[in-house]
Fold these 2 entries.
Entry 1:
Amino acid sequence: MEFRNFIGGEWRETAAASANINPSDISDVIGYAAESDAAEIDHAVGAAKAAAVSWSASTPQQRFDVLDFIGSELLARKDELGHLLAREEGKTLAEGIAETARAGQIFKFFAGEALRGGGEAMASVRPGVGVEITRSPVGVVGLITPWNFPMAIPAWKTAPALAYGNAVVLKPAELTPGCAHALAEIIARSGLPDGVFNLVLGKGKVTGARLVEHRDTDAISFTGSAETGSEIAATCGRLRKKLQMEMGGKNPMVVLDDADLDLAVEACLNGAFYSTGQRCTASSRLIVAGGIHDRFVASLTGRIAALRVGNALDRATEIGPVVDGRQLDKDLSYLDIAAKEGGQVFGGQTLQRTTNGFFLAPALITETNSGMRINQEEVFGPIASVSRVEDYEAALQVANDTPFGLSAGICTGSLKHATHFKANAEAGMVMVNLPTAGVDYHVPFGGTKGSSFGGREQGAHAKEFYSKIKTSYTFA
Ligand code: NDP
């Protein structure tokens, strides 16, 4: 299988290609992906720019029809595309199918948004004058996405971009070209005019960087690591370019003495380890009150030990492989760092399975404190730490002791503490008696502090980034 660039309505031949490897079985080469140079980005941005004006004038019905078509096909093919996703990224088949369905639902939601449009009209403070506040497309939007949600994140950027009338150049992560290619194939048949959506595959430092600095990209939406985000922000700041970024997390999950123990254990198990812990919203810091701590740790380690780690395509698997060898090395190095800092590591050994893949037993590190690196730096693997705290006040203080602010959770039976936590947790999303990961597709997604920058993604609030506002005064 060849994964090629899609530019100006055409699938492009490119000479250089990189192998797309299944992390559950490294002998399985899924295909070869174009390794583009900066000139391909220039070509794609040119095609987008040429198409942007007429698409910005398209009717809500045209936009609805295109987005609805894409959403319907994603939903109809969720099993097949979910299989591709699991094969290429390593999350389980069930997770891959659910993510593909979510991508379909996102396109359906934004099909509706195209129709809802909006704007405001009001009287001026001056007699005889009317005021209108309208929205128009931003223009050419560059979308840069990570490997961990290879279908959903391209969907939640592309769908609003098109719904609000923009032209798009998508640069997906190098590790997961297959899902982006499959999405582009659907978009190519959706009735969208040539050039409105373009896909360029290749290394981020070459293609992503070019997309950010290109003078004809009017806005950049990025999801990925904080390090890459800082580079992109510097360039966009210099060029005064509109920017939205979603980056890492170090999400706290507080468990108070009055929590339902079984519910808390399930929420932490799911939040910390599902999708191999490779979620920006993963519950990587478990902050547990002293009265429940020992029972919680005993129950959670029992559940962790029973998790079935294996080939993502095996239906019995609950935890798939780590995405690649580099990420596996990073996970192992953090287990080492945590142990040297005094943490007690449960699990965390590499595992042999019938296929040769990057399998890691989920790990829980107990006896940690907030100053340790394991509690301050994002790992992005099936690893969670436990910090013991005295009471709710101490838990909140530890929960907020992080440079990140994406998602925060609390397990408690106390309405008073839940209410206080919702108001005072320094995070863009707060969960009560729910895992920190796992969100709805029709409401805003994003964080505070070092996790996010710019307007929110998803839901109707996405229009803040994907459109610009004009205020018109009329004296009649
Ligand atoms: P990276 O930051 O390495 O890569 C993200 C994207 O940026 C990739 O497409 C990458 O291309 C590209 N890129 C790399 N370097 C540059 C550059 N200099 N200029 C422009 N683009 C570049 O992140 P990962 O793919 O490793 O994803 C994991 C990270 O994403 C985690 O830190 C995680 O927390 C974060 N994340 C955040 C989410 C959120 O919503 N808050 C959601 C999901 C993930 P290439 O792949 O070719 O290197």
Entry 2:
Amino acid sequence: MPTKTLIGPFTQLLPMSGLPVRGALKDAAITVIDQGGILISEGQILKVATFKNLLPEADEVQRIDQEVVGIPGLVDAHTHICFGGSRARDYALRNSGKTYLEIAKSGGGIWDTVLKTREATEAALVQGVVARSNKHLKLGVTTLEVKSGYGISVEEELKMLRAIKTAHAQTAADLIPTCLAAHIPPKDQPNSPGQYLQELSEKLLPQVKAEKLANRIDAFVEESAFSPKEIEPYFKTASAMGFDITVHADQFSTGGSAIAVKYNAISADHLEASATKEIELLAKSATIATALPGASLGLGCEFAPARKLLDAGAALAIASDHNPGSAPMGNLLAQASILGAFEKLSNAEVLAGITFRAAAALNLKDRGTLAKGKKADIVAFPTGNYQEITYHQGQLQPCAVWKNGIKVL
Ligand code: NIG
Ligand code: FE
């Protein structure tokens, strides 16, 4: 018989289970188990109840001797942590008043990172992803989505996706790869954006499948990247091949969210420019709306209309967008807490957005709550009151993290 391990007691345990994926959430809806325990076996949760009630069933106990609040391991559903170089220059230029387009034209922007990422060896990319993943893990993030998208050619995108796969084996965090070859059109090819996308459909996507490098694809639908019309054939092909679709949508101009909904995207991410029409559309769809406050903080612009999205009935996930350009901070809890303060989100909404709603944005059903059968991904914060978690805006950091039942912090 496999060993049953009891972890606890947690002064407060928030399983975050039994809550809806869509719509507004009041804190009163959260179940708080005082002096809670989690019974686990072989990396999975068997039971969640009071520590005292679970004690007779346990073969062994991992006793916690301090006040802690336990919540599900955090899920960061949108990152670009595979990259070379730095864009500190872009940040300084933006803050001195230069626009995104001016910076891109003067050698900065996404293309600058493409050149630096192409220069990097696959091994160097692996090292970067592992180091950044481990930093996220220390901050309680047990699952991270990681995009390619700085290769912008078939071979360079494959290099990135292979690096992400190798990195996954070298960190305790789970990395969920996404092919973002449709990030921007290549600047070094005479081909039109449409021809580039066709090349991706014909050469890259079959190889991504063959090597099992990703089962998700993403595209940046924006005036400076791909238009809705350009991206449609690519989404059709990817969808027919069985890829899940996610979209960088409505960041500076609208159009992306409508295309996301049309192609049944799992999530539409960014949404800073979304207005009433887009909010209504997302609320009526099955597509998860993912806010990326780290990009708003990095670019110094509006947050996505998180409150309006929730009130309209949309599902709201919150992710870090950790990338060298628009979101260099890479602290999911800090960013989600700050979004909560600006957008008037309850603790329940913030925590849902970085746990089970974020898992839904990655189409993952095996994590995001503390419930029977889920992965034993748990994060403990050194406090006796869960309200302290968002209150400290990221400065209250985990004192313990379990990934698949193994204590990694
Ligand atoms: O999510 N918006 C497009 N892509 C990224 C930015 C990547 C970059 O600037 O390097 C984003 O913000
Ligand atoms: Fe992004």
